[in-house]
Specification:
With 309 residues, the chain is mostly helical. The chain is built from 17 helices and no strands. The chain is elongated. It starts with a helix and ends with a helix.
Length: 309
């Protein structure tokens, strides 16, 4: 008896012969310049047998050729989407065949175009390891690695900083990440918000002096960096510099006046300075914005104690 489940299983069973036939048809279209028809066949082959590495590889290469053909007429978002689709196909290709140096080479080029420098360097390293020794591919891949070595190192420092900002990271890991980031503080295109990241790492690691200097530089570079302003206010508050903490908190609040935490920070600074009416105004607003926030509740309690005293 044929059940619905068995029919479903057959319909979704990989069909290697069909996939190979579609790849061959796609290759014919590709060689004759019909890129759209070629891509249609390659994508159908990927669907017919998701484990066929060459189908993913040919689809990725075809998408790159289509990107080169159409890029001048595409908006930025469309270009990025096209590269994303090419990368997905190529990543599938090297997942199913890790020895495909052509796949790694194409993926390295896509990653470079997307400014994913560390990932591009990893892909070029695979080409160096997998390409045939008798050709020029290994040497060319090594030259490509050398050309992006600085960008890749900066990108890795950025990734290390982001990882060290995750919950559970140790102070030692945060200090190491901040130190690794130090040579790249001016690399704004590769490491956005580098000073803010480094300052936050030093604050969490307990070095308030370094943290304050970096965060002050970050807000000087970008006065609209609300997270840097928030961090700077926290550092100033921890150092007992309430006037500076209030200034940074107000700057952050003015940029995001509906953020309950930022509103509360202004109130807490006023509270520390003994301006109870101003503190009450901001803490009340914060509580209306987020009635269940326990930090705001504690600020409300502290205000009540101060009024009683």
């Amino acid at each position: 008896m044929v059940t619905a489940m068995s029919l479903f299983s057959r319909a979704h069973r990989p069909d290697r012969k069909k996939a190979e036939r579609l790849v061959t048809e796609g290759y014919v279209h590709f060689k004759e310049g019909r890129l759209d028809d070629a891509l249609h066949r390659y994508d159908a082959a990927r669907k017919a047998d998701p484990g066929l590495a060459v189908a993913h590889l040919d689809a990725g290469l075809c998408r790159l050729d289509l990107y080169n053909r159409d890029a001048a007429t595409l908006e930025r978002a469309a270009r990025e989407h096209a590269l994303t689709l090419a990368a997905e196909a190529l990543e599938a290709a090297v997942t199913h065949d890790a020895t495909s140096w052509r796949g790694w080479r194409a993926l390295a080029n896509v990653r470079e175009r997307r400014q994913q420098w560390a990932a591009a360097d990893d892909a070029w390293a695979k080409v160096v390891a997998q390409a045939p020794a008798e050709g020029n591919e290994r040497a060319e891949a090594q030259r490509a690695r050398n050309a992006i070595a600085h960008q890749a190192a900066a990108d890795r420092a950025r990734q290390g900083a982001l990882a060290a900002l995750q919950d559970g990271a140790s102070a030692e890991a945060q200090r190491a990440a901040a130190t690794a980031l130090a040579p790249y503080l001016d690399e704004r295109t590769i490491v956005p918000r580098a000073r803010a990241l480094a300052g936050t790492l030093w604050r969490r690691a307990g070095d308030l002096t370094q943290a304050r200097a970096l965060l002050a530089a970050a807000v000087a570079d970008d006065a609209d960096d609300v997270e840097a302003l928030r961090e700077l206010a926290s550092v100033c508050l921890a150092q007992g510099d309430l006037a500076a903490a209030l200034s940074a908190s107000l700057d952050a609040y003015r940029r995001e006046p509906t953020d309950a935490g930022l509103v509360c920070n202004v109130g807490v600074c006023h509270l520390g300075l003994g301006a109870l009416d101003e503190a009450a105004e901001y803490i009340d607003i914060a509580q209306r914005l987020d009635p269940k926030d326990p930090i705001i509740g504690r600020a409300k309690d502290a205000l009540a104690r101060a009024r009683t005293a």
